[in-house]
Design brief:
The chain is of the alpha+beta class. The chain folds into 2 domains: 52-177, no CATH class; 191-305, Distorted Sandwich (Glucose Permease (Domain IIA)). It has helices at residues 4-31, 33-40, 75-82, 86-92, 125-131, 136-142, 170-177, and strands at residues 52-53, 64-68, 106-110, 115-118, 156-159, 191-194, 197-200, 207-210, 213-216, 222-224, 229-237, 241-247, 252-262, 269-270, 275-279, 290-296, 299-301. The longest helix is centred in the N-terminal third of the chain and has 28 residues, at 4-31. The radius of gyration is 28 Å and the shape is flat. Residues 29-41 have low confidence and may be disordered.
């Protein structure tokens, strides 16, 4: 007769083995999005399309080919031709502006479907992962990275589980703004009288969000352009008094408020450091100072993220 204790032992051992294997599979699925993405996105090697290998382009586990576009090519047709998504081709070739490929343009064709990002100066791995709403760990693993130390401008990243970003998406604009951060000069001299964020309003004593920095160099002090730009507003505006707004491209603007004098005109092009006005106390204010804002897509940003240290 079979020993009952032996049967119980075997049952327990098999059960534990099954549980252990299940936990390993679950952990791999949960903590390695790269594995999920690579399993779900098969390699597509377009060997019969007269393509050449792309030299110097490297992402672990992915091959890249060069295709020279023709006058009749569109991204939707190319996606069908190479069995890839249109978003894959647009993200890899930096055509997220809804345009079609230019004739005789060398396009990169990957062997795997997915979202790619071409790194620009000032962008780091955490910012990129956040913008595309994917896991930083997944990006690190998929690209064999450990940190930002070996990240180079122009490098292509494969982003497992990422969401495609058009050039109109505020998350894309935020990424672009990183390329210009820490290059804006302080628009006037003097101390920082008030900072960015929640504060007690000096006029009514209520808690209120302060959308910029206040600098107090004294009445009549010089105000200069913090960065190259175009004047899109130069006049009175409720609350701001005499106000100048400069457009720096990529939905980025700077605002200079409470001025005593405005020394520029709308549509005028200014260079970084050019004199544009004088500090005053016009508008809703308790005394002479410059209220300085940086806005991305018309949303106030902390100016300290942009000013040269």
């Amino acid at each position: 007769m079979e020993d009952p204790s032996r049967r119980i032992f075997l049952t327990v051992a098999v059960s534990l083995a099954v549980v252990w294997m299940g936990m390993l599979v679950w952990a791999a699925w949960l903590f390695s999005p790269k594995l999920v993405a690579f399993v779900s996105a098969p390699q597509v090697v377009p060997s019969n399309q007269n393509l050449e290998r792309a030299p110097g382009v490297s992402v672990p586990g992915i091959q890249f080919f060069i295709y020279h576009s023709t006058l009749d090519d569109s991204f939707s047709e190319l996606a069908k031709k190479f069995n890839l998504s249109e978003e894959t081709l647009r993200s890899l070739n930096e055509y997220n502006n809804h345009n079609e490929p230019k004739p005789e343009h060398a396009l990169l064709i990957p062997s795997r479907d997915g979202i790619f990002h071409v790194v620009r100066p000032g962008q780091d791995l955490a910012d990129i992962a956040k913008a595309y709403e994917t896991s930083l760990m997944a990006v690190l693993e998929a690209n064999h990275k450990t940190n930002n130390s070996d990240l180079k401008p122009g490098e292509i990243l494969y982003l497992p589980g990422a969401h495609y970003l058009s050039n109109r998406d505020v998350r894309w604009l935020a990424l672009l703004s990183l390329t210009t951060q820490k290059t804006f000069m302080k628009p006037t001299t003097g101390r920082f009288a008030d900072g960015f964020g929640e504060r007690i309003d000096p006029i009514n004593g209520k808690v209120r969000f302060h959308a910029g920095l206040d600098l107090a160099p004294g009445l009549g002090a010089r105000v200069v352009a913090a960065q190259d730009g175009t004047v899109i507003w130069a006049g009175l505006q409720s609350g701001f008094g005499r106000l100048i707004i400069l457009d720096h491209g990529n939905q980025l603007t700077t605002w200079y408020a409470h001025l005593e004098q405005i020394l520029v005109k709308p549509r005028q092009i200014v260079k970084k450091g050019d004199l544009i006005g004088k500090v005053g106390s016009s508008g809703r204010t308790t005394g002479p100072h410059l209220h300085f804002e940086v806005r991305l897509n018309n949303k106030p940003q902390n100016p300290l993220l942009y000013l040269v240290p």
